[in-house]
Amino acid sequence: MISINKKEMIYVKTNILVRITAILLLLCCTLPGAASDYTLGIFGNANEDDTVNMQDVTYTELIILEYRDQTELSDAKYDGKINMQDVTQIELVILGKEKEITLIDAADRIVTVNKPIEGGIISFGTYTPEILRILGEENKIVAVNKYVKSNEIYFPELSKLPSIGSGYSPDLELVASLNPKLVLAWTTKLERIEALVDVVPNDCSVVSLMFYRSEDMVAETEKLAYILGKRDEAKYYIDDFHNEYVDLIKARTEGLSDEERPEIYVESDWGDKYNTWAGGSAANGFIEIAGGRNILADTPGDGSVIVDPEEVVEKNPDIIIRYADTADAGYEVDDPSKMKALRESVMSRPELANVKAVKNGAVYVMDKDPIYGPDYPIAIAYWAKWSHPDLFEDLDPQAIHQQYIDIQGLDYDLNEHGVFVYPPLEES
Question: Alpha helices of 3-79 — where are they, by DSSP H?
């Protein structure tokens, strides 16, 4: 039961005349944001849509007046009560002047972060530094993982920072010695997160954000933008890159019938041949957005699975997409010969000789780096182009890729360097 004292009720009733029009309108139309693509997991997002705005102020006032039911995120102060302090907190969040913010992280932990972040940030994830560059906060990073450390071309400045090792098994002594104010963990394992909490200073917040799965990319970017007070910077990436291309591709493919969607087999670079992706995987989602059908869509699981070659032959895919090893492609590679050889090795498998993709030359090799992380719209653009060349005749995946590189602030020209797909689009 929500408690409210007389003083607060008088305050609300005094201000009700000012807000009455908005309240009456919102009584009719303000509901928890089920229609949004995602719910922004920040306390103060009272109507549970994809942002914190004045609708949440009004919604919270309606909760106080008992016209609306309390929602999970309506306790903006996260103190177990809904009152005018929550209204004030929401208004401060809207203005970017809040002293703390409470959110739900990728590990489903409720974390309160003190603001502003006036010290160092340790980035455990491989993709997290890209988001921090988008937000213009890369100068606050004081340590990275070993993969970022080794990638001197894509992370020319960040690769010079100390390495905490693997995001899964970090050097905790180094973490503690750097005295960070924010640690961005790359794990959802509570025991690993607690190990970090135990070694960092009391005024340091540990937040798990993965920036890995496409369906969480916008929501996690928004969360970090709220933490760092960089919502305008996030908006450019979200609106002018991510949503611009993902929405465009979805708009053209979502109405396609099953018969119009080519059947696609995607093969990982991990271990044995025929290591592919199940129906709950990110790759399956990419295939659907790009206008195709995953031949393994009925396979349970949300990750990779090894299948019998005979099953692939029986499914007879129209298109085969093979991930390339990171040593054979990417920003540090200019020679496409290994990508070409990999494609030829797939096409020369005896068991695939009569598969439609091989017979028609619809076998593509792709660097896996743009497939996961905040640059994943690049991969979807290529997959859409391969799946429906006529429908996406005007789509230029390389130009989209170059735009992302520019957003990252890198001096890198795709016309001169890098190997990311084979065959090149002009040869496909």
Answer: 6-29, 54-64
| Owner of token pair 């790759």 | 283
The single-letter code of the amino acid at 251 is A
Is 105 within the bounds of a domain? Answer: no
How far apart CA 179 and CA 161 sit, in angstroms, is 15
Integer Cα distance of 193 and 107 in angstroms: 9
- For 8-11, which contacts have Cβ atoms below 8 Å and span 24 or more sequence positions? 8/64, 8/83, 8/84, 11/84
User: Helix, strand, or coil here: 38?
Assistant: coil
- Please report how the helices 54-64 and 84-95 are oriented relative to each other, as an axis angle in degrees rounded to 10: 180
Number of folded domains that form the chain: 3
Structural contact between residues 307 and 296, judged by C-beta atoms closer than 8 angstroms: yes
Same-domain check for residues 246 and 353 = yes
Task: Output the domain CATH number for residue 278.
Answer: 3.40.50.1980
132-161 residue pLDDT tens? 999 999 999 999 999 999 999 999 999 999
Other CB atoms within 10 Å distance of the CB of residue 124 = 27
Range of the domain at 370: 236-427
User: pLDDT tens digits for 228-269?
Assistant: 999 999 999 999 999 999 999 999 999 999 999 999 999 998
Strand partners, 100: 114
**Exposure string for 216-226, b = 16+ CB within 10 A, e = fewer:** ebbbbbbbbbb
